[in-house]
Amino acid sequence: MLTREENERLTRVGPETPMGNLMRRYWMPALLSTELPEPDGPPVRVRLLGEDLVAFRATNGDIGLIDEYCPHRRASLWLGRNEDNGLRCVYHGWKFDVKGQCIDQMNEPRSFAHKIRTTSYLTVEFGGIIWTYMGPPELMPAEPKFEWTQAPEERRYVSKVLQESNWLQALEGGIDTSHFSILHRALKKNPSEEGIPLDSPAVKSAPKLELDKTSYGYRYFGIRQQEGNDLYVRAYHFIMPFTQLRPPGPGKDHVHGHFWVPVDDHHCMVWNFYRSYEGPIGSEAEAVDGGGGNDPEHIDAENNFLSLRRAHNDWLINRNVQRTDTFTGIKGINQQDRAVQESMGPIVDRTKEHLGPADKAISIARRLLLAATDAVERGEEPPGLQPEYWDLRPAESTFSAAEEWKEKIVPMMQVD
Amino acid sequence: MLTREENERLTRVGPETPMGNLMRRYWMPALLSTELPEPDGPPVRVRLLGEDLVAFRATNGDIGLIDEYCPHRRASLWLGRNEDNGLRCVYHGWKFDVKGQCIDQMNEPRSFAHKIRTTSYLTVEFGGIIWTYMGPPELMPAEPKFEWTQAPEERRYVSKVLQESNWLQALEGGIDTSHFSILHRALKKNPSEEGIPLDSPAVKSAPKLELDKTSYGYRYFGIRQQEGNDLYVRAYHFIMPFTQLRPPGPGKDHVHGHFWVPVDDHHCMVWNFYRSYEGPIGSEAEAVDGGGGNDPEHIDAENNFLSLRRAHNDWLINRNVQRTDTFTGIKGINQQDRAVQESMGPIVDRTKEHLGPADKAISIARRLLLAATDAVERGEEPPGLQPEYWDLRPAESTFSAAEEWKEKIVPMMQVD
Amino acid sequence: MLTREENERLTRVGPETPMGNLMRRYWMPALLSTELPEPDGPPVRVRLLGEDLVAFRATNGDIGLIDEYCPHRRASLWLGRNEDNGLRCVYHGWKFDVKGQCIDQMNEPRSFAHKIRTTSYLTVEFGGIIWTYMGPPELMPAEPKFEWTQAPEERRYVSKVLQESNWLQALEGGIDTSHFSILHRALKKNPSEEGIPLDSPAVKSAPKLELDKTSYGYRYFGIRQQEGNDLYVRAYHFIMPFTQLRPPGPGKDHVHGHFWVPVDDHHCMVWNFYRSYEGPIGSEAEAVDGGGGNDPEHIDAENNFLSLRRAHNDWLINRNVQRTDTFTGIKGINQQDRAVQESMGPIVDRTKEHLGPADKAISIARRLLLAATDAVERGEEPPGLQPEYWDLRPAESTFSAAEEWKEKIVPMMQVD
Q: Of B42, B75, B116, which is closest to A340 when you measure between CB atoms?
C-alpha cells in the first residue's frame, strides 16, 4: 500500500516528473530494428515517456529520433520524406538530419536553417533493438550491452506488444514470482490452451520469497517446497528501472526477460527477449512467444503493436476453457499477464491494496524506485547505470533440503 | 427550472453525494435473475451508483455482489473463477465468499485470509430480479415486495435496457403523462410502426394534471376531456425515489411500471415490468415490450443491455415513417422515450428550462427528492421505505362529467 | 511565435470569448443550400462557434436556424417535425417558427406559447449558401455579396468538408503561399496522383512575399523568380476574418477561394468556392474540387461532411506514391492541406514555432485578428464589414524584370 503521493511519484513519466527524470537517465529500447528495415524508408512514430517522436533511418544507415512536430509550424514529420540523409517536412520542405539540425528550407529564399535545431535523442542499435537515451548528454551512461544482445542473431529473439496500462503495474506483474503458478496454471494434463502443467515443480506449493539487494537492483528467489523436502528455486534479476531476467522453465539453457518501457502514463511497451545457449532459437522461441506468449499473429505491427486481445473485447476470454482447461480461459501466457494488469485500469489505485509477504519483491522495487527518484533529485547517480548488469543471467534448479541452495545458485546467475 | 446547485444535487449519485446517500437507503434492482442462471457460472459486471461491482451465484445458490477489484492488488474479479462457494481472483488465487470475506490465498505459504474482507452488498432475489441494498446495514428497510413481484411467474415479465443519460431525465420522462399522447402518437389508422392510435382517448386533448402527495411519493392523474364532456383519467403512482406504476392502456387488467436506476452520473438502467391479472402474460407482454417497447431483439444482453438504437446512429430514425406514419419515426414506444431523453445530453441543463402547468408532476418530484436528500442529511428517514407501497396499482377509466371521478378511481389504485 | 495567451485569444470561439465575439460580427456560411433541398424537409444539425443549432426550411421557404435544444425541457429539435411553417418538438409538441417564436404547445390545455422564444439567428440565402449572422442585431453588417455569389448558377460551384482542427491553422495554411509549390508538388511528369507540375512557374523558386494592408484585411503577393529574370506573381486577398481569394493557376479566368469557418475550438468547416468568367463551370470545377481537392466521392454529406481521409487512418497516405510520384503520397490538393493541418493536433502550440520571412502573411493576419478583437472590446467596428470587399478578385501573371509588376497587377485584383 502506498500513499497517493507515492503512487503519483512512481507512475507519472512525462518531462519534469520525478519518475520521468529518473527514466531519462537510462538507455531505453525504442524500436525493433525491423521497424526501420532500410535506409530512406518511411519514418515511424515513437511515443516514449509521454513525448511524441519520429524515427527514421537515413541514407547512410544512421538513425534519427526527433520531435514528431516540425519546429517551423508544428506539422507532423511522420508525414515527412526520408531522403538524402535527412527527414523533410512535406509542408514547407524543412529538412533535418539525424541530430535534429535543420539542413534545408525550401520555402525561404534566404535560408536560416543553420539557426534551427529540433529536439533529437541519441540512438544506438544492437541486439535487434534501436535504443535511445533521452537524458542530459553529459550524464549518458554506458550502452546497455546485455550479454544476450551480443549473441549471434540466430540465438536471440526479441518482440514487443503495447500494454494499455501504466508501466508500473506491468513491472509489478513481472517481478511477482508467486502468480506464475496460479494465473498461468493448466487445470488438466492436455489442456486445449497452453498452461503451466499440473506436474510442474512450480505448481507444487506457494513460494517462499527471498531477495538480495544489489548495486543494480536485486536478485530474488521463489522457493517452492517439493515432495520429499526438495526445494525448487527460481532465481531472477530485477535491474533498475524496468528490466527483468527470468528463468525459462525447467530443462532449457536460456535467458528470458522483459523490459516494461513507459510510453506515457497510461501505456507501456512490453518487450520480450530470449537468448539460447543451446543452439539456434528460431521456431522454438517463436513458439514461446506465440502460444505461450504474445501470439505474434495477433499483434498488429502496423497499428502500434496493439494486440487483438484487449480490454474492450474482454481479452477474448473463453469461459468454457476457463472452467475445465486453464485458470483464466485467456490464450497465451503473456496475454494472461497483460489481461490482469490491464483489468486494474490505467493506473491502479495503490492506496487500496492489501500486500502480504508474497509481495515483498514488489514492495522493495517500489522503495528502490522511490529512493532512486530522490537520488536523482539530489544530483546523485541512480543504480543500474554501471555495466555490472551486462553479464547477469537467471537460474533455476531443484535442491535437496540438505543443500545450501543459495551458495550454489548465485554463481549460476552470471554468464561464465 | 432549477439552480445549478439543485441540478447537481439531484443528478450526482456517486459515494458521499447527497443523492447517492439518498439512493443508498433503498433496495435497488441490480440484475435480472436470468443474468446469473446457474450456480458457479461466470461472474457478471454490475455498475450501480458509480460503483464497479461483480455479481456471482455461488455453488449453494447464494448471490454475491462485491467490489469488482480484488483487495489484494486490484485485479478485476470479473476475470475470476466462480467455484466452490466463492469467487477466486485468477491473479493470485485469493477467494471471496458472497459476504466479501476472503477465504483462501493461493499465493501465501501462510494465509492471512481471515484478516481480509472486501466491499460486499446484501442481495435478495424475487420476482425475477436480484435486488441489492448498498446503504448502512443498520438502516436497511423492508424488502421491496411489490405485489407484482409475488405473482406467479407466468403472470409477470421483467426486462431492462441501458440508457445513456442521467437517471433523472429518465424518471422525468416517465412521470410526465402529457407527452404520452404526443411523442408516441400514430399519424394514421394503420401505421407502419406501432403508435398510440388516433382514436385513443389519450389523444383527444392535452391532459389536465392533478396530483396528491402521499407518504411514499405521490399519485397523479392525467385528465383528458373527451367528446360529450366525458373525462378519460389515467392514474399513476410515483414511488420514491425511482419507481413508477402506470396504466397499461384501455382494456387490460395489468400493472405496468418502470424503475430508473442510476448506473452512474451519465447512465441509468431502465427496468420495465408487467403484471397481468387476466392470465399468462407470455407473448403479449413481450409484444408490449418489443414492438411497443424495448424491441428485445435489438437489446444486446451480452453487451451491458445496450440497444441497437442509440445516439451515435440517431436511434435509426426513419424520416419517411415520421412524415406519414408516426410522430417520431423511431421504432418502439420505449425507444422513443429513450431517444428524446438521450437527445438532451448526458445531464440536461435544467437552468435553461421553461416548465408549465403540464410539468407539475416533474416539479413536485424534484422537490420531494431534494427534501429527501435534506432529510437524510438531518438523520431522518426518507419517504418510500415503508411497505405501504407494496399493494399499489395504477388505474384508468372514463367518467361522465357528472361523476366524482377521483372518489371512484382512488380505490381502484390498490390491489384488492 | 505567440504567447500562450495570444494563442488562446486567437483560437477560442465560444460565446463570450474575444474571438467568438469578433466572429459574431460577421455573416458566416452555415449550410449549403442543397442541405435543405425542400420546404418541410428534415431539420439539419449545424454547429457554429461552439453552439449547437438546428436548421429547417419552412413551408413558405423561409429558413430557421435555432437552438438545437427545445426551451421547454431541452429535447433535441433535430428529432423534430418540420410542418406548416414551424419546427415542432416531438416530445411535447412545442412548435417554433423561423424566428424562434413558440407558436404551439400540444401538451398544455392553456397555451402560454406567446411567452416562449428560443435563440434564433438571422439567415439569408444566395450563391448556393445559407448564411447566418449570430451577433447583436443592431450591429448587423451588409450581407456578404461577393461578386461570385451573384454569378449565374452554372458559373459557380461551392463545396465543403469538415476539418478536425482549430480554424486558425486552416486559415494559416490557406494564406501561406510558400507551401503551395512544396506540399502539393508532383515529382515527375505524369504522376499517378495530381500535383503541381515540375514545369509550373510556381515550382521554380521559393517566393518572395509582399503584402499591402487594406481596409478589409490585406492583399499579398508571392513573387517567384523565373528563368531569364522574369517574375511569376500570384496575388491573393485575405478578407477578415476567415476568407481568402486565390488565383486558380495559370491559364484560367477564375476566382477560387475558401472560407475557414469555426465549428468549435477543435473543428472548422472548410468551404471551397469557384467562379468562372469563361463559361459554365460544371465538370471542370468538380475536377478541381475532386482530383485536385476535396475528392467529393470521399466526403460523407450524410455524416457532417467528414472526409474518408482522416487522422485516424493517416489520411490514407501511400508511401509508394510519396516516394516516386507526389511530395506527400496523399490524394487530392485540398486533402494534403487538411492532412498537414490536422497533423498538428487540435490546436497547434504556437509558443513552439519558428517563423521566418516566408511566414509574414501569417504573422500579420494574427496581428490583424488580435487587433480586431481589441477593437470589438473597445466598442469599435472591426475591419471587413463594409461592402468594399464584394468585388475583389485574385490575379496571377508573369512579368519581365523591367516591368513595375505591382502597378500592373493591382488593377487586375478587382472585378471590372
A: B75
Of C182, C319, C328, the CB nearest to A92: C182
Q: Identify the top-confidence range among A180-184, B267-271, B329-333.
A: B267-271
Of B196, B194, B164, nearest in space to B179 by CA: B196
pLDDT at A64: 98
In sequence order, the β-bridge partners of residue C208 are C223
Q: Assess B159–C contact: CB distance below 8 Å, yes or no.
A: no
Query: Between C289 and B400, whose confidence is greater?
Result: B400
Q: CB C92 to CB B208 under 8 A?
A: no
* φ, ψ at C167 (rounded to 5°): -60, -35
pLDDT of amino acid A213: 97
Handedness of CA A88, A94, A99, A103 (dihedral sign): positive
pLDDT for the residue numbered A289: 55
Sorting pLDDT into bands at 50, 70 and 90, what band is A288?
low
Strands annotated E in C175-304:
208-213, 217-225, 231-239, 243-246, 254-264, 267-276, 299-300
Q: Do C76 and B357 touch (CB under 8 A)?
A: no
Which residue among C76, C93, C116 sits closest to B354, beta carbon to beta carbon?
A: C116
Distance from CA of A361 to the nearest CA of C (A): 41
Cβ contact A73–C355 (<8 Å): yes
Q: Cell numbers 473485447 label which residue? A: A313
Closest residue of chain C to B349, computed from CA coordinates: C74
Q: What is the pLDDT of residues C376-385, one digit of tens each?
A: 999 999 999 9
How many residues are recorded in chain A? 416
Under an 8 A CB cutoff, do C71 and B349 touch? Answer: no
Q: Which 3 state secondary structure label does DSSP give C31?
A: strand
Q: Which residues pair with A27 in a beta bridge?
A: A133
Q: Which of B105, B123, B127 is nearest to B114 (CA)?
A: B105
DSSP per residue, C351-396:
GG----GGGHHHHHHHHHHHHHHHHHHTTPPPSS-SGGGTTB--EE
pLDDT tens digit sequence for B198-245 = 888 888 888 899 999 999 999 999 999 888 889 999 999 999 999 999
C-alpha C69: how far from its chain's center?
26
